[in-house]
Design a protein that fits this description.
The complex is a heterodimer.
Chain A (H helix, E strand, L loop, with lengths): L1 H44 L6 E5 L2 E5 L9 E9 L4 E9 L4 E8 L4 H9 L28 H21 L16 H18 L3 H18 L6 H9 L9 H17 L3 H6 L1 H13 L7 H7 L2 H16 L10 H6 L4 H16 L3 H5 L2 H26 L1
Antiparallel strand pairs in A: 1-2, 2-3, 3-4, 4-5
Helix pairs in contact in A: 1-11, 4-5, 4-7, 5-9, 6-11, 7-15, 9-13, 11-15
Chain B lengths: L1 H30 L1
The chains are: A alpha+beta, B mainly alpha.
């Protein structure tokens, strides 16, 4: 009895320490960001150039030519929300009203997404475009596949800056079109998958579940490479909310998953939407093996995914970069993008999924941890409300 | 034989779990 009480006190202490350290990391990260942005801003823009501030909102600097034929014009600083968080750019515009360069001052996009933009010359297409151009993604600007949200966010920031210069300096009357709700085939398919899976769960239909799993594997995995990641929850916790009108898909996926977990007390995403989870389930079905570990090993592995989730969140909060915590191998498999070490993690996980049912989900996945904690939180809330009602 | 099989399976499982865990820790170290 005494030993059980001791264990439960120890657990409580560990839990309190985990939450305290997360709160501390959040505060430290919050104060770090402002300094960093300011420093990069000065470093990238000046470079020996004389800069005269001519507007505060948005920030516009005028710069004369350093020598004959070199750039003279304006730098306009604008920012918006990207896939991973806020991004800030400086658009260089010449005296004739054409975009000359785009400098990325800061961003929190996943490196693989950002590298894709650079590799596919995304920023180069803006050069020599008139400041009055509509800069519309997929119409006048080419977006990059599997980095669509980042492409659209950068385009928006450039458009905001260019149109500000057009109106403020060149006295043109360029109207900013209010973005339309982006509710297309992808959003409808995602909602459809949620509904079909929910039906499969309620009526306990295995076939319907397998159908959703296969569809999610192709659609969320290979087609969009949009698996839910700890980076999404990191963005939410840091308050980086992408505009809902443009990033409707993000909201359905992230907030929709969290809401279904909280309201229905069911982890729908892990049940059949996660493309990586679905692949692992398929692998273990193919092999027919599920190793039963000894209780000693199980004891050690029990808290592993929680520990990794905590570590990832600490990193995300300290750096205020959600992608820093994304250790999941999903983007490596579905987008063939990732840093070297992730290429070593993937074969281990794939191999593991042949001998354990849902190997990564069971021992390592931070998404499952967060969704299950949400459900646990909801159950505790229900209990708390019930107790209050009883007392009254 | 069954005991040996169980033991070997546990070893394979442990190697896979520990290997992945260490690789994830290296990922955190590298990304910093």
């Amino acid at each position: 009895m005494k030993q059980i009480r001791k264990k439960s006190t120890f657990k409580k202490i560990i839990r309190a320490l985990a939450f305290l350290s997360l709160a501390a990391a959040y505060v430290i990260g919050f104060f770090n960001t402002d300094r960093e942005t300011l420093r990069i801003l000065e470093e990238k823009i000046s470079g020996g150039r004389e800069l005269t501030k001519i507007s505060d909102n948005p920030l516009i600097y005028e710069t004369p030519a350093l020598r004959e034929g070199s750039f003279s014009g304006y730098y306009v600083i604008t920012g918006t929300q990207g896939w991973g968080g806020p991004l800030r750019i400086a658009t260089a515009i010449n005296k004739q009203g054409f975009v000359q360069d785009v400098l990325v001052l800061s961003h929190k996009e996943t490196p693989s997404f950002f590298n894709k933009l650079q590799r596919k010359d995304f920023f180069i297409q803006f050069k020599e475009k008139s400041i009055a151009s509509p800069f519309l993604p997929k119409e006048t600007i080419d977006t990059i596949t599997q980095a669509t949200i980042s492409s659209e966010a950068f385009t928006k920031a450039i458009r905001m800056g260019s149109h500000s210069i057009a109106n403020k300096i060149f006295n043109l009357n360029v109207l900013e079109k209010k973005p339309e709700w982006k509710f297309g085939i992808n959003e409808i398919l995602l909602l459809g998958l949620f509904l079909i899976l929910l039906t499969a769960l309620i009526i306990k239909n295995k076939l319907l579940r397998y159908f959703t799993m296969a569809a999610a594997f192709v659609f969320l995995g290979f087609h969009l490479n949009s698996s839910l990641s700890i980076a999404h929850f990191g963005s939410l916790l840091l308050g980086f909310f992408p505009p809902i009108r443009i990033h409707t898909f993000w909201w359905i996926l992230v907030v929709g998953t969290l809401m279904t977990a909280f309201l229905l007390k069911r982890n729908l995403y892990c049940y059949g939407l996660c493309p990586f989870g679905n692949l692992q389930e398929l692998n273990s079905r193919i092999s027919g093996i599920n190793i039963r570990l000894s209780s000693r090993i199980l004891k050690i592995t029990k808290y592993m995914s929680r520990f990794l989730t905590w570590l990832a969140l600490i990193l995300i909060f300290l750096t205020t970069k959600p992608f820093m915590g994304a250790y999941e191998p999903f983007p490596v498999l579905f987008g063939l993008e990732g840093i070297e070490i992730q290429w070593f993690i993937l074969p281990f996980v794939i191999l593991g999924s042949f001998v354990f049912t849902r190997f990564f989900c069971r021992f390592f996945c931070p998404v499952g941890v967060i969704l299950n904690l949400t459900i646990k939180g909801r159950r505790k809330l229900d209990k708390f409300v019930r107790n209050i009602v009883k007392l009254e | 034989m069954t005991k040996l099989k169980y033991f070997l399976k546990n070893i394979v499982g442990l190697v896979l779990i520990a290997g992945t865990f260490i690789l994830i820790l290296i990922y955190f170290y590298k990304i910093l």
